[in-house]
Amino acid sequence: MKPVLSVSKIDSKIKQLVYNMEETLIAQVDPQGVGLAAPQVGVSLSLFIIKPSLDSDTEVFINPEILEVQSPETNNQQPKNKHTKLEGCLSVPRIWGPISRSHKVRLSYQDLNGKTHTKWFTGFKATIIQHECDHLKGVLFTQRALEQQSKLYEEKDGELQPLHY
């Protein structure tokens, strides 16, 4: 996969792309999609959207860059480096795997109006952001699973079955 290009100008074409991506994401119901990166729709631009739940607003991230990751620490214990959650991907339907991701990320990005933000995201949003930033680098969650020596599962008839590879 070729590297994504930075979005140099947020014009009507970019706004139309975001609108089309949002329509695509909303239309994905089984399973429900929570994020979509431009490369997933065949556009090599540094842009993704997230919609963590059905009732949440869609958030747009243009030219995102993870500046810092942070994990929660508990009193007098070793810091927990990452949280492991079951992830899936619209690009790899019906495949799931436990992936360790940082609990908190600081992200620099532009919104659809071209305004630059630097903001911390935690929990589920932080997971989605890391997943979508991976897409911008040509990395799928299945590669993360292999790197982390996690098992992958295939969904068949509503049940998760170990994927043999």
Description:
- This protein has helices at residues 12-27, 123-136, 141-147; strands at residues 35-37, 47-50, 59-70, 83-89, 92-101, 104-110, 116-122, 153-156, 159-162.
- It is of the alpha+beta class and 165 residues long.
- Helices cover 22% and strands 35% of the residues.
- A hairpin with a 2-residue loop joins strand 8 and strand 9 (159-162).
- A five-stranded antiparallel β-sheet has the order 1-2-3-6-7.
- It has one domain: Peptide deformylase (Peptide Deformylase).
- It is globular, with a radius of gyration of 16 Å.
- It contains three helices and nine strands; from the N terminus they run H-E-E-E-E-E-E-E-H-H-E-E.
- The longest helix has 16 residues, at 12-27.
In short:
The chain is 22% helix and 35% strand.
What descriptors fit this protein?
165 residues, alpha+beta, Peptide Deformylase, five-stranded antiparallel sheet, four-stranded antiparallel sheet, 9 strands, 35% strand, globular
Compile the SSE list and pairings:
Blueprint: H1 12-27, E1 35-37, E2 47-50, E3 59-70, E4 83-89, E5 92-101, E6 104-110, E7 116-122, H2 123-136, H3 141-147, E8 153-156, E9 159-162
Antiparallel strand pairs: 1-2, 2-3, 3-6, 4-5, 5-8, 6-7, 8-9
CATH topology: Peptide Deformylase
- Assembly status: single chain
- Basic shape: globular
Cα distance, first to last residue? 22 Å
Q: Beta-strand level of the residues, as a percent range?
A: 35-45%
CATH architecture: Alpha-Beta Complex
How do the SSEs run, as a string of H and E? Answer: HEEEEEEEHHEE
What does the average pLDDT come to?
Answer: 92
Query: What count of domains describes the coordinates?
Result: 1
Helix content: 10-25%
Q: Strands across the major sheet, in which order?
A: 1-2-3-6-7
Profile the largest sheet: 5 strands, antiparallel
| Low-confidence segments | 74-79
Q: How many helical stretches?
A: 3
